[in-house]
């Protein structure tokens, strides 16, 4: 087996990126820090919550399952008990620190129930990782495809981690398809069937530009991660299909029926079609040209918000969703921030990769 496969850092990158996401979602909006009252006991020794929602406990548990999964995959040549122990210890430590910090945030409620739920989620993720590792056929198949299809080494691992992050945040249905920002149209009035909303041509144009540039930029990003050009077409189509399925299932599950007419707006649909038509023209150009085009497209999708600042600061209102739990506020804020930062991270990665001689060439 190639050496870079035995020392893959993909789980490390994913664990670090997901851990940062948990920190952001747990502590945003990072303001109004107030020290607790002098007589306030530490959250572990305080009174058990008078009431707790099963949904909140389940959400806190599920939030840490991917973290435990990635952490359990990190150790090399370790026993099953060691992997589970590392996953539980990492999840419990992260949750403990965040719960302790939440004592200084008045909008947050630090309690032991969340700590136990987060720890249980990390343990569940570790168990899922063990099941994957015990299946020799599945594990070897993943390794072979990783080696055969994508760039080798740590650079390829980091690129795959960034692509995974982009796919993960697409599950927020408040962001229409591959746009970078939320659609502010539903905020203009109540979500009622048959509501007549006067279209804003400038906003529609910016939405179309967002979607087109995102499709072009992400498609080229996927193409640049592939080892052979003959695999580019399948990989790009598969990425778009997975993103569309994730977004569509989330929208059908979470959005109110009246919000669908806004989510599938003409500007977004036109932009996705335009980006899909332009993408094939760039897939077989020299890689330096693809790097430049990819970075320009991604950064332009971000900078185009300067033409319509209201889009940049728009937030998906809870009235879009058919359930209104407080976790949606954290979810919306996290996905919005990740999508705004992702073009910068992806562009920096590609320019650093392009500076290496012979990058992407078969060894």
Task: Set out the fold topology.
Blueprint: H1 3-6, H2 10-27, H3 54-73, H4 80-102, H5 112-134, H6 136-149, H7 153-169, H8 201-225, H9 232-254, H10 260-263, H11 266-278, H12 287-303, H13 309-312, H14 327-354
Helix pairs in contact: 2-3, 2-4, 2-7, 2-14, 3-4, 3-5, 4-5, 7-8, 7-14, 8-9, 8-11, 8-12, 12-14
List the main descriptive attributes of the protein structure presented here.
single chain, 363 residues, mainly alpha, 14 helices, 64% helix, disordered N terminus
Q: Could you describe the 3D structure shown?
A:
The protein is mainly alpha-helical and 363 residues long. It has 14 helices and no strands. The protein has helices spanning 3-6, 10-27, 54-73, 80-102, 112-134, 136-149, 153-169, 201-225, 232-254, 260-263, 266-278, 287-303, 309-312, 327-354. α8 (201-225) runs parallel beside α11. The radius of gyration is 22 Å and the shape is globular.
């Amino acid at each position: 087996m190639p050496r870079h496969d035995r020392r893959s850092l993909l789980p490390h990158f994913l664990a670090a990126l997901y851990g940062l996401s948990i920190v952001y979602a747990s502590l945003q909006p990072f303001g109004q820090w107030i020290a607790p009252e002098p007589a306030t006991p530490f959250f572990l020794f305080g009174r058990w919550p008078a009431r707790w929602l099963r949904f909140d406990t389940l959400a806190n548990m599920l939030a840490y399952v991917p973290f435990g999964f990635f952490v359990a995959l990190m150790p090399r040549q370790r026993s099953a008990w060691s992997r589970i122990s590392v996953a539980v210890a990492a999840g419990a430590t992260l949750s403990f620190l965040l719960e302790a910090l939440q004592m200084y945030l008045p909008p947050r409620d630090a309690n032991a129930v969340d700590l136990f739920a987060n720890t249980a989620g990390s343990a569940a993720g570790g168990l899922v990782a063990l099941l994957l590792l015990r299946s020799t056929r599945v594990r070897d198949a993943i390794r072979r495809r990783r080696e055969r299809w994508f760039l080798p080494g740590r650079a390829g691992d980091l690129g795959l981690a960034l692509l995974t992050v982009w796919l993960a945040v697409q599950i927020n249905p408040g962001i229409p398809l591959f746009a970078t920002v939320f659609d502010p149209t539903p905020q203009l009035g109540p979500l009622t069937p048959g509501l007549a909303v006067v279209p804003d041509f400038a906003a529609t144009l910016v939405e179309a530009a967002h979607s087109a540039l995102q499709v072009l930029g992400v498609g080229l990003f996927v193409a640049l991660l592939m080892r052979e050009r003959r695999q580019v077409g399948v990989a790009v189509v598969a990425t778009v299909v997975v993103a569309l399925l994730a977004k569509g299932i989330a929208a059908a599950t979470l959005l109110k029926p009246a919000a669908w007419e806004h989510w599938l707006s003409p500007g977004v649909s036109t932009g996705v079609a335009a980006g899909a038509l332009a993408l094939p023209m760039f897939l077989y150009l020299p890689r330096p040209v693809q790097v430049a085009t990819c970075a320009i497209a991604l950064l332009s999708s971000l900078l185009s918000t300067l033409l319509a600042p209201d889009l940049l600061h728009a937030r998906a209102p809870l009235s879009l969703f058919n359930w209104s739990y407080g976790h949606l506020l954290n979810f919306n804020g996290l996905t919005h921030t990740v999508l705004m930062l992702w073009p910068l991270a992806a562009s920096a990665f590609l320019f650093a990769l392009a500076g290496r001689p012979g990058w992407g060439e078969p060894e």
